[in-house]
Amino acid sequence: MRVGRLDSRTVGLISLLAVLSVSPTVRLSGQAGDPRLQTAVQLAQSGRTDSARAVVRRLLATLSPQDSAYPQALYTQGILAPDAATAATSLQRVVVEYGWSPWADDALLRLTQLYWAQGDVAATAQAAERLRRDYPDSPVKAKADFVGARAYFELKDETHGCQLIQEALAGAGDDVEFRNQVSFYAARCATPPAVAGTPPPADSAAPAVPATPSFAVQVLAVKSASQVDEILTRLKVMGFDARVVRDTSGLFKVRVGRYPTREEAQRALSRLRTKLGGQPFIVEES
Q: CATH number of the domain at 214-285, please?
């Protein structure tokens, strides 16, 4: 069992922090492991992130690098880090120094998400491919496949993007919300088979296909990147797929999800109002 996995793209200036999650089903939860780290997780879940970091710092100062709890502590430090660079350092140590540990694939997933959030699509694809290669049976593989596929699409590599999308779809299991997110991107990979020997009709043009809108729930809009850190952390800890969009006016808009239907966005809106409060609302994205 592991400290949970949290699933998306924000701007590079925003701290990815712990709970970089990929979907509402990926969560930060107290699971089997060192009870002191479970305490840190519980503190983070309650919004006391600074206290959680302090617990992890003290534990790392007392543990030997050879201790079986050390990679778990590094991983927890990475997902609770106050900035992207610190998070990457801890997570990379888990992958490189403790690749045998049960935390390495989780760390690779977080790195995949971190690179994507920073806009480094090449590093995103590379991290996703490493997880596929080194941990093919990992329960987080589908989450990394999904992020890696989107990176490939950004790189205009539809072939590899569609390959990862299909693998993510195959690994979605009973996670309906995640399956819907993947299916939204899978639609671009569905091409009708060509009939051998049949040329395209002369002087015919394919009809324009209107862009399919998606829906998100906007939680916050502020001018300072530092102002969104706390809300991002809270949303990620709660298990929401939070991200930041910066519009032409310079506002940082914190949004949750990319839902293919307004009904699914409405369900997320209801959960957000219950768990977070405030005045979130649904926005349509093209």
A: 3.30.70.1070
